[in-house]
Write a structure and sequence with these properties.
This is Outer membrane beta-barrel domain-containing protein. By secondary structure, the protein is α+β, with helices and mostly antiparallel strands. It has two domains: 1-40; 45-213, Porin (Beta Barrel). The chain is built from two helices and eight strands. The protein has helices spanning 2-34, 100-105; strands spanning 53-63, 69-80, 85-95, 117-135, 141-157, 160-174, 179-192, 199-213. The chain has an eight-stranded antiparallel barrel. Strand 5 (141-157) and strand 6 form a beta hairpin. It is elongated and about 100 Å long.
Length: 214
């Protein structure tokens, strides 16, 4: 009886050791799958580029009702509140032409050369729409978006100032994260009495320019 017990003991130990080794191997595999050894990257949040401010310049054509279409130049500055909304201020100016009445009548001019200078400044709210991309080739893609904009300001023209409302839209193409090409179309509305009676006029503007973000 003692011999049988002694003969059984090494076998039992061998089986127990095999079971323990199996459990260790299984635990090692599970640890490798469930708890992988990942190397965490350290990110310095202070170096993330916000680029909430925008500054740019533009040129184009402005059609002042009754006073012809002429070149317009200006600058803009904007603050991007969120990805969808931004506030923008514009200053622009153009030199208007003679009216049809002045040209056909051959009489004295209604305005002096200085009075023909039109200067406007306004503050507007913009809403970004339809973000997307433009593919130049299979290797180059540029971020884009469309936007609508509306606001109000003042127009200095013919020796007076007029409260002016503006609205329009545009297209923005980002060449880099700090440089963008913009194309805008605006309508400037104000009322004047230069021709003798109050007249509400619409002045269409088409412009293109560059913007820097910082």
């Amino acid at each position: 009886m003692l011999g049988a017990s002694l003969g059984y003991t090494p076998s039992a130990f061998a089986q127990q050791e095999e079971r323990d080794n199996g459990k260790i191997d299984e635990a090692t595999v599970l640890d490798a799958v469930i708890s992988p050894d990942l190397k965490r990257r350290e990110i310095d949040e202070a170096e993330i580029d916000n680029e909430d401010f925008e500054f740019g310049f533009f040129s184009g054509v402005m059609s002042v009702e009754d006073f012809g279409s002429n070149n317009v130049y200006g600058v803009r500055a904007a603050y991007h509140i969120t990805e969808d909304f931004f506030l923008e201020g514009n200053i622009g100016g153009t030199q208007t032409s003679k009216t049809s009445f002045e040209v056909l009548s051959g009489g004295s001019d209604l305005l002096t050369e200085e009075e023909r200078e039109l200067l406007y400044y306004n503050m507007s709210l913009g809403i970004n729409l339809l973000p997307g991309e433009v593919y130049i080739s299979k290797d180059y893609a540029f971020n884009t978006n469309y936007y609508v904009i509306f606001g109000m300001g003042n127009t200095q023209f013919a020796g007076n100032e007029y409260i002016t409302y503006n609205f329009g839209g545009g297209f923005r193409l980002f060449a880099t994260d700090w440089l963008a090409l913009r194309v805008d179309f605006r309508n400037h509305l104000f009322t004047h009495n230069i021709l003798g009676e109050d007249k509400s006029i619409q002045n269409l503007e088409a412009q293109a320019g560059l913007s820097l973000y910082f």
